[in-house]
């Protein structure tokens, strides 16, 4: 009784605690984090070491790159340029590198030395002039007595269209009188020139700080010298070699550095439902072309085949048409998926036996109607329904309606509010019922949790890893898969415009086994997708490389078996006789730039090992047995083109290659590895 009395005395406190606990139970930690993330702008486009990157600048780089590259490559180039610029700027700042106002002026005008003018700025000025050059020349033709050069002054070029630093210098004199917008635009231009100059200074420091010695140059040049060789190829036996689980695990641990994901990627499975025009669509298109053929008028929409000799005409229907009278219309007829009507326009006699013909024709592609497209989309929806019927998918509680799922919590809250209503609104003395109400809410909660755990799940998730493919095979639906998709990919294999699918794959709520609850439109296909794997950054999981490891272990064992049969230092002929390999191959001009040897040894067959062995040997030497991917090799060096003296021009070329092709790239790589780079572009694009 004493306990019940204490509960009555603390009625409000107890009810508040129960209410808060129930609400906390309903709201998952993920929902809570998502709420705060959506209400505080912590999602930034990207940052380096906590400093936010300029998305407008990225869009500018992206726009420029898109003029020459596909979307995906354009994004890669824009990101690389922006990140490199920031890293170099930060590194230069740490070294107290600056660009003074006097330097910027010299980069704009070249008043001290014309060669100092920024190449970026010079090209910008001359390109701008070339865009308006025709207008200026037209003006001069219309006004031959006008000898002024004012139009050239406006574009900062001389009368020949070449950049003029003097005119830039004169223009900058009145900078204080410029409008605000002009000052802002010029300042942005100077900022870009300053960034480029800072990058040049940093590169110069690298150039002066890292030097390629003459010995290193000679090694590089010798590696590029051509060698003439003979070799034999000893194929690995086709018989399989048993590999134990312990061997697989041991190989995986020893070679883990070779099995790394540089970034998180994801794997996806998908089925496609092609959008194919129906019979009704075909008939409708045919009828439209029949109607046009009755009154075929040649206009801008027509294609004209002008003055063609009979021997040059490819369409056999045209050959039949030119045998008719001029003005005859043929069609519609079906060719390469389009309906075509053609009109014999005219003919010209060149000689007694030669004529030229002009034919006008109009094509109309058969396009699927909206109702046909809806039918194709419905096929994708039927696939998802079929998967539930065949019990290869089940529903996932993640998507369950919170109100229906937690009915018991709502009931508990309702009971509490009813009690509070009688106590504080109606002023009734019902405190003696409080212990029973508390007991009732606890019983309702226990019952709700029990029934919820026993209830069926709601969203779509496959019950086993092979279910997606098995179902597609059973329904005879085209299946495919793509591995290692990154979050900035815009097309998955043959799926056109599949960016939406990639965004779904990398959504924080998408889990392995999830299936899209919508059918995506990708070109002429509707697609249903399933996330099959997440490949985190770092070590690849064993299962993803198991087959590769088994093949490597088998090749190692086969190679060892071949090596054990060779004793001493056999010649190519002796080894060839021992392994019944009849052919001794020859190869010329073998060097480190070789992509293949006789088109028989390629990258896939480990051309690097082959070339490396050639480089390490002297003339007249025979190699030890060389391991390839599908065969073992024995190599004999016939001759090598190495020499000991090189010109200064050759040496300088190697130094420049090392600087800009090696040292500078390595410097940027080190800067990136030691920086905290956040890339959230996938959220915005």
Provide the residue-averaged pLDDT: 79
Strand content: 15-25%
SS field, number of helical segments:
25
Structural class: alpha+beta
Q: For the report, how would you describe the main beta sheet?
A: 4 strands, antiparallel
Unreliable spans are 32-41, 396-404, 453-459
Instruction: State the separation between the terminal residues, measured CA to CA.
Output: 66 Å
Helix proportion: 40-55%
The order of strands across the largest sheet is 16-3-18-17
What's the oligomerization state?
Answer: single chain
What Rg, in angstroms, do the CA atoms define? Answer: 38 Å
* Outline type: extended
Number of strands: 19
| Count of the separate structural domains | 5
Annotate the secondary structure layout.
Elements: H1 2-9, H2 11-26, H3 29-39, E1 46-48, E2 51-52, H4 55-66, H5 71-94, H6 101-109, H7 119-142, H8 150-154, H9 165-173, H10 180-209, H11 214-223, E3 227-235, H12 245-254, E4 260-261, E5 265-274, H13 279-293, E6 303-309, H14 316-321, E7 329-335, E8 338-349, E9 355-365, H15 370-389, E10 393-394, H16 402-405, H17 407-425, H18 434-454, E11 461-462, H19 467-474, E12 479-485, H20 499-505, E13 520-522, E14 525-535, E15 538-539, H21 542-565, H22 572-578, E16 585-590, H23 607-616, E17 626-627, E18 631-640, H24 648-673, E19 677-679, H25 681-684
Antiparallel strand pairs: 1-2, 1-19, 3-16, 3-18, 4-15, 5-12, 5-14, 6-9, 7-8, 8-9, 10-11, 13-14, 17-18
């Amino acid at each position: 009784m004493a306990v019940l009395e204490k509960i009555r005395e603390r009625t409000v406190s107890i009810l508040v605690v129960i209410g808060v606990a129930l609400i906390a139970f309903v709201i998952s930690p993920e929902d809570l984090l998502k709420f705060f993330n959506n209400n505080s702008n912590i999602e930034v486009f990207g940052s380096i070491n906590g400093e936010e990157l300029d998305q407008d600048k990225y869009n500018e780089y992206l726009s420029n790159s898109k003029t020459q590259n596909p979307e995906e490559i354009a994004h890669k180039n824009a990101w690389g340029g922006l990140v490199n610029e920031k890293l170099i700027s930060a590194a230069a700042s740490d070294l107290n590198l600056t660009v003074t106002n006097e330097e910027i002026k010299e980069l704009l005008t070249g008043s001290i030395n014309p060669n100092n003018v920024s190449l970026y700025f010079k090209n910008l000025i001359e390109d701008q002039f070339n865009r308006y050059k025709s207008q200026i020349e037209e003006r001069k033709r219309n006004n031959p007595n006008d000898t002024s050069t004012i139009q050239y002054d406006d574009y900062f070029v001389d009368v020949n269209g070449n950049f003029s630093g003097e005119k830039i210098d004169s223009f900058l004199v009145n900078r204080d009188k410029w409008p605000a917008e002009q000052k802002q635009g010029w300042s942005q231009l100077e900022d870009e020139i300053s960034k480029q100059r800072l990058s040049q200074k940093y590169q110069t420091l690298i150039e002066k700080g890292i030097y390629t010695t003459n010995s290193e140059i000679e090694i590089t040049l010798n590696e590029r010298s051509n060698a003439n060789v003979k070799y034999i190829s000893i194929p690995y036996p086709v018989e399989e070699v048993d590999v134990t689980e312990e061997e697989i695990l041991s190989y995986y641990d020893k070679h883990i550095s070779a099995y790394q994901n540089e970034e998180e990627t994801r794997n996806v499975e998908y089925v496609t439902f092609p959008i194919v025009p129906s019979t009704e669509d075909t008939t409708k298109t045919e009828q439209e072309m029949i109607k046009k053929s009755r009154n075929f008028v040649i206009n801008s929409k027509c294609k004209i085949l002008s003055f063609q000799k009979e021997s040059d005409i490819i369409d056999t229907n045209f050959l039949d048409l030119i045998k008719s009278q001029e003005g005859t219309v043929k069609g519609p007829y079906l060719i390469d998926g389009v309906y075509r009507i053609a009109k014999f326009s005219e003919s010209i006699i060149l000689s007694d036996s030669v004529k030229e013909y002009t034919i006008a024709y109009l094509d109309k592609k058969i396009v699927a109607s909206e109702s046909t497209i809806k039918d194709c989309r419905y096929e994708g929806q039927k696939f998802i329904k079929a998967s539930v019927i065949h019990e290869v998918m089940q529903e996932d509680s993640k998507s369950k309606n919170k109100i229906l799922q937690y009915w018991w919590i709502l009931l508990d809250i309702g009971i509490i509010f009813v009690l509070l209503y009688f106590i504080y609104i109606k002023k009734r003395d019902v405190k003696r019922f409080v212990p029973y109400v508390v007991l009732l809410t606890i019983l309702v909660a226990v019952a709700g949790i029990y029934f919820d755990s026993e209830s069926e799940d709601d969203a779509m998730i496959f019950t086993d890893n092979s279910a997606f493919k098995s179902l597609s095979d059973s329904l005879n639906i085209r299946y495919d898969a793509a591995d290692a998709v990154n979050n900035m990919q815009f097309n998955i294999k043959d799926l056109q415009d599949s960016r939406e699918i990639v965004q779904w794959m990398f959504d924080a709520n998408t889990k392995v086994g999830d299936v899209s609850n919508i059918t995506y439109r990708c070109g002429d296909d509707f697609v249903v997708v399933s996330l099959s794997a997440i490949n985190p950054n770092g070590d690849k999981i064993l299962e993803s490389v198991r087959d590769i490891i088994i093949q490597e272990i088998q090749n190692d064992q086969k190679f060892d078996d071949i090596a054990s049969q060779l004793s001493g230092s056999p010649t190519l002929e002796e080894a060839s006789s021992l392994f019944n390999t009849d052919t001794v191959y020859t190869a010329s001009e073998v060097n480190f730039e070789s992509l293949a040897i006789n088109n028989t040894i390629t990258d896939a067959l480990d051309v690097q090992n082959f070339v490396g062995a050639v480089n390490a040997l002297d003339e007249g030497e025979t190699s030890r047995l060389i391991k390839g991917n599908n065969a073992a090799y024995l190599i004999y060096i016939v001759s090598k083109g190495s020499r000991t003296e090189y010109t200064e021009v050759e040496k300088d070329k190697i130094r420049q290659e090392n600087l800009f092709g090696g040292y500078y790239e390595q410097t940027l790589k080190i800067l990136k590895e030691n920086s905290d780079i956040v890339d959230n572009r996938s959220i915005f694009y």
